[in-house]
Design goal:
Two copies of one chain form a homodimer.
Chain A lengths: L14 H8 L3 H9 L6 H14 L5 H8 L4 E6 L5 H15 L4 E6 L4 H12 L6 E4 L5 H10 L3 E4 L9 E4 L2 H14 L4 E7 L2 H16 L6 E5 L5 H14 L7 E5 L2 H13 L8 E4 L16 E3 L2 H16 L8 E3 L3 E3 L8
Parallel strand pairs in A: 1-2, 1-3, 3-4, 4-5, 5-11, 6-7, 6-8, 8-9
Antiparallel strand pairs in A: 10-12
The first copy, chain A, binds a DNA duplex through helix 2 and helix 4.
DNA sequence: TTGAAAGCGCTAACAT
DNA sequence: ATGTTAGCGCTTTCAA
């Protein structure tokens, strides 16, 4: 509108524009934004006035190039549509935003290969740090990350040898706690319905081992590929029932996800089986809906908000150059005892 | 490792490094990446060899500054943890990725004020386009977007006067279709359980109007604040029942979300009410779980994958400078008839 | 098909 | 407290 000289294209307002209007040099404008304490209040005010006047928005990509600080972070999760990861990453995003960081969110689909490709792509934008899911990455991926020499937070899992920092909980520990809880409830016939992703399988192994240790002989098992859905939960029970049609009584099923547990409860209901009367069900994750099911679902709570917040905190600490950061942050888990198991 | 001269900090490999190794100038390297057809195959090969050797990753922020093309897009959705929006945006992301675009995903929490702040922040990174949710934005927001002079896709809703392009469906139309479906099924006693976000309220209004037109006098109504949860669905039925304890028979409830519908089904079950026998339930969205409920949920399907894909398509068309793009893309909706209503 | 040169919009020593 | 001066790592005319 106010294009002077009627030039073809309205030339964009840059820091130089602001400097001219405020009667200072660009460096002063830059300082007014980044280190206002170095500039006299009056000058800052004049500059801000010019900013208001023009609607100037500092170009962060230019700034990033000059300062070698992109103020961006890369986050790679297995799935954005899985609320488990969405809630976690959301908390991470909110926490780093407060510090002026923008996150580029990417989805690996549980594939190490994809993860690696995403890391490579992300690297092009020079993020100042990476948030990864899990601790199992391809060698190429680790190599690239190491070469980039930026903080790397591995979330959702714990390892003795993180790339940089890991924040999560012991999947084996959680699964063992589940097994003990079931055994403690008096269940001697136990089954497991599990997704086939790495962490779920790790839980399965620990769960089975703990059962064996408790003298429970032949736990039934059904593995479900891909992401958890109600439909897969229903199938899981259907399959389990097909295998041992006669006696489900006194059986409890541990699921790798609350969603699967929920599906099992629906299938049970549709077959006239009562939970927990005819069948005990235990979930994993303590999603929002777990307490609202009927019966309310016994499950294992993972504090996803804390996970995101701690990851953000660790990331910021590293970016600030602090070396005193814990390299292995355990957020723990908690067995949440509700009504979907028999109390004996 | 191979830091020559034992200098303090291993200086990063840039385009100049590659140029030196390949025996060409930086401009040739740049062309090899962006316009390989202008370069002799042998030269390209030598350059790629140097890239492999060094693990060079082009700096997109420098490139973006030089070319004034950030190859990034901003997307603002009300909530990332609501699967409805997550699925939509996921499809958008996947589709623009294929074209080399990275998206910065932000969450407005259904607040116009927040949305505007996010737009302002995003602008600093000079995205080449914006994906917004809904068609209702603050004036400041519209102004900024207009000033930025980039493509803006407004999704999930349709309007006669989009900022640039809108892709969505008629919420009024969908709600009316729901009302007609219920009336067609013979329901004369109808209730609505709705969230309080803008689009849900728009559906409610249209739903109520259509009922009125059909001569249905006093539909009961319960409004639920915030995001949809199973718990809120349960509460909704509890409240409805508290108001008309005597006769729920022959009543159908239309919900603004499948999740609410699901909660209502759970509450009904816990009270010994049969669906659809004692109570009809209709959802909205056709989420993945809807078909797996017991009874399967009658609902209105919104093709979220198509929504994301069409939005991406429109965005890319605009970025390519095509002017022939439809400004108002209707993806429609579909009544999905399942078992949660009585068939009379 | 390739090179030379001039910037993109900003930041960060180094001066003053 | 502010100005000067070099870049940051790339792209893109314009030449050759």
């Amino acid at each position: 509108m106010t294009a002077k000289q009627g030039k073809k294209k309205a030339q964009p307002v840059t820091m130089a524009t602001i400097a001219r209007i405020a009667g200072v040099t660009p460096s002063t404008v830059s300082r007014a934004f980044n280190h206002p304490e170095l500039i006299s209040p009056e000058t800052v005010e004049r500059i801000m006035e010019a900013v208001r006047l023009t609607g100037y928005v500092p170009n962060l990509v230019a700034g990033g190039l000059a300062s070698n600080r992109s103020r961006s972070l890369a986050a790679i999760v297995p799935s954005i549509t899985n609320i488990i990861y969405a809630a976690f990453v959301q908390n991470f995003v909110v926490n780093v935003r407060e510090r002026g960081y923008q996150v580029m969110l990417m989805e690996s689909g549980f594939s190490r290969q994809t993860e690696q490709e995403l890391v490579a792509t992300a690297l092009g934008r020079r993020p100042e740090g990476f948030l990864l899911t899990g601790v199992n990455h391809s060698n190429a991926c680790r190599r690239q990350l190491l070469a980039a020499d930026v903080p790397v937070i591995e979330a959702w899992d714990l390892t003795e040898s993180p790339i940089d920092i890991c924040v999560g909980f012991s999947h084996a520990g959680a699964a063992k706690a589940a097994a003990r809880h079931l055994v403690g409830r008096g269940y001697r016939s136990v089954a497991i319905a599990t997704m086939d992703d790495e962490r779920a399988l790790r839980r399965r192994d620990a769960f089975l081992a703990e059962l064996r240790a408790a003298g429970i002989a032949h736990p039934r098992e059904v593995t479900l590929p891909g992401g958890p859905t109600l439909g897969k939960g229903r199938q899981a029970l259907a399959r389990l029932l097909a295998e041992q049609a006669d006696d489900t009584a006194d059986t409890a099923i541990f699921c790798s996800s609350d969603v699967i547990a929920h599906g099992i409860m629906i299938e049970a209901q549709s077959r006239g089986l009562s939970v927990p009367g005819d069948l005990g069900v235990m979930g994993f994750g303590d999603q929002e809906f777990a307490a609202d099911l009927n019966p309310a679902l016994t499950t294992i709570r993972i504090d996803r908000a804390a996970l995101g917040a701690r990851a953000a905190e660790a990331m910021m600490a590293r970016i600030d150059g602090r070396e005193d950061v814990e390299r292995r942050i355990d957020i723990g888990f908690e067995v949440i005892d509700r009504a979907s198991l028999l109390a004996r």
